[in-house]
UniProtKB/TrEMBL annotation:
It comes from the Bacteria. Coiled coil: none annotated. InterPro entries: MmgE/PrpD_sf (IPR036148), MmgE/PrpD_sf_1 (IPR042183), MmgE/PrpD_sf_2 (IPR042188), MmgE_PrpD (IPR005656), MmgE_PrpD_C (IPR045337), MmgE_PrpD_N (IPR045336). PANTHER family: 2-METHYLCITRATE DEHYDRATASE (PTHR16943:SF8), 2-METHYLCITRATE DEHYDRATASE-RELATED (PTHR16943). Belongs to the PrpD family. This is MmgE/PrpD family protein. Residues 26-266 form the MmgE/PrpD N-terminal domain. Residues 288-473 form the MmgE/PrpD C-terminal domain. It comes from Streptomyces noboritoensis.
Length: 505
């Protein structure tokens, strides 16, 4: 790995492009080894994430934001080969297929994550890469090269540059990663990828208001927007168009005005040309449909359920946790919506007090039932929920940023005080499904997740065909990529889509 220093430079300095971060990211794309040089364990994990994405997409097909994105995409027919939209069997323009499919993947907040200096869902890179791979008739091996490149860049940026501290949404890192993945997939020149990265970052810098207060359906659309913008940026760059430069280091650029200001100084570690792309192995998926920092909290609540007994006797519950958890999904966010029983699902899955209350009551978690309005508005739940607060514990913050991924912790300690003064305490550092947890997610777990979420949507034979194709991703030819779209009951989906109001298209 090579550590690159990234800081602001005045225009008069004329920073050579070879010293700019966007160029360094582009070099990762163009220096990614061919399929034969990819690390086998990284390839296996990429296959797992293709399965994971399809799992959550199948479960979200008749959710309104996903149906709206699909309806928009289907109004943009393919010119040329095009790309498939989940649950349609129809090919549309690649950027619109990416829009619809990425929304389906993101809607339930149920796919993979990587947390470091900033937040990310690296699986968001896959839908636009798959769309372009289909449109350009690339192979499964080409797609794998793109996926592993995108994960490499995404993880590096999330480790090195914090967006959240400046209330910038994390799709800015996503767009750069997707663009690099597209560059590797298509084997583009470094100059082309460099220009496309700068265009993508410039057009996808947005505020974190999409994840604050009453969280809306835009939370699902935001990564899809980044993927669509990345495809369009690559198209323009391939046609010779240039970009605002240097996008990161310029005196009126990303670092100077969106992040740490004129004195910004970051370190980003990137692989050398030919070095195996293994960053995907540092990432982890979700067993539960909720913000990642809540994964261990759900497991902890299930563990505490029997010890706590009659929940009507609870006086208070305090969750001692990291700065990020306290301020993003805890009471430290100062969002009254996190305690509102009429809040949106998107708000509730970012409310760890709500999540802990329901998991403590039910001893389980479900991607739909746990968020149902009648569940959130249950009087006993509301009473318990409003007794739960979070506090930042410096030790949990330190563990959150632990350099060793096997020791990094995203959980917390629960202190439950009963009416009679009895105190019940327990803690959990990592979710059970984390690679260093009690039950690390393996291929059988990914397959179970897919079969569970696809049940009643994809036939048993259809499930088998999809899983077989995903497991052979490296061997698939261009036509074989079609099998990565599980066959569903199109009539049922179309019936739901027919209930939607019309838009412009």
């Amino acid at each position: 790995m090579i550590e690159h220093r990234v800081r602001v430079h005045p225009s008069a300095a004329r920073l050579p492009r070879e010293q700019q971060l966007a160029w360094k990211l582009a070099e990762v794309a163009t220096g990614t080894p061919a399929a034969a040089g990819l690390a086998p364990e990284a390839v296996t994990m990429a296959q797992n994430r293709v399965i994971d994405n399809a799992s959550v997409a199948m479960a979200s097909l008749t959710r309104r934001p996903v149906a709206v994105a699909r309806a928009q995409a289907l109004r943009h027919p393919a010119h040329g080969v095009g790309a498939t939209v989940f649950a349609s069997g129809i090919r549309v323009s690649a950027e619109w297929a990416a829009w619809a499919n990425a929304t389906a993947v993101r809607e339930l907040d149920f796919h993979d994550t990587y947390l470091a200096a900033d937040y990310s869902h690296p699986g968001d890179n896959i839908p636009p890469l798959l769309a372009v791979a289909q449109h350009t008739q690339r192979t499964g091996a080409d797609l794998l090269r793109g996926i592993l490149t995108a994960y490499e860049v995404h993880v590096a940026l999330v480790k090195g540059i914090c967006l959240h501290a400046h209330r910038i949404d994390h799709i800015a890192h996503l767009s750069a990663a997707t663009t690099c993945g597209l560059g590797a997939l298509l084997e583009l020149p470094t100059q082309t990828v460099y220009q496309a990265v700068q265009q993508a970052v410039h057009t996808t810098t947005a505020t974190r208001q999409s994840r604050k207060g009453e969280i809306s359906s835009w939370k699902a659309y935001a990564p899809a927007f980044a993927g669509k913008a990345s495809i369009e940026a690559v198209d323009r760059a391939m046609r010779g168009e240039t970009s605002p430069s240097p996008i990161y280091e310029g005196e009126d650029g990303f670092l100077a005005w969106m992040l740490d200001g004129p004195d910004a100084d970051y370190r980003v570690r990137l692989p050398e040309p030919g070095e195996p792309r293994r960053a995907i192995l540092d990432t982890y998926t979700k067993e539960h449909s909720a913000e990642y920092q809540a994964q261990a909290i759900i497991d902890l609540a299930r563990r505490l359920r029997e010890r706590t007994g009659n929940l009507e006797k609870v006086r208070s519950i305090v969750l001692h946790t990291s700065h990020h958890t306290h301020h993003v999904i805890g009471s430290g966010a100062n969002d009254p919506q996190k305690y509102d029983p009429t809040a949106t699902r998107e708000t509730l899955d970012h409310s760890v007090p709500y999540i802990f209350a329901v998991a403590l009551e039910d001893g389980t978690w479900h991607h739909e039932r746990s968020y149902a309005p009648e569940r959130a508005q249950r009087p006993a739940t509301v009473d318990l929920w409003r007794k739960i607060t979070t506090v930042e514990d410096p030790e949990w913050t330190r563990r959150y940023h632990e350099p060793d991924p096997d020791r990094r912790a995203f959980g917390g300690r629960a202190v439950i005080t009963l009416e009679d003064g009895t105190v019940i305490e327990d803690e959990l550092a990592r979710a059970d499904a984390h690679p260093a947890g009690a039950r690390p997610f393996d291929r059988p777990a990914y397959e179970r997740k897919f079969r569970t979420l696809a049940d009643g949507i994809v036939t048993a034979d259809g499930q088998d065909r999809f899983l077989d194709s995903a497991a052979r991703l490296a061997q698939l030819d261009a036509a074989g990529l079609d099998a990565l779209f599980p066959a569903v009951d199109l009539d049922a989906v179309a019936a739901y889509d027919a209930t939607l109001p019309k838009g412009l298209f």
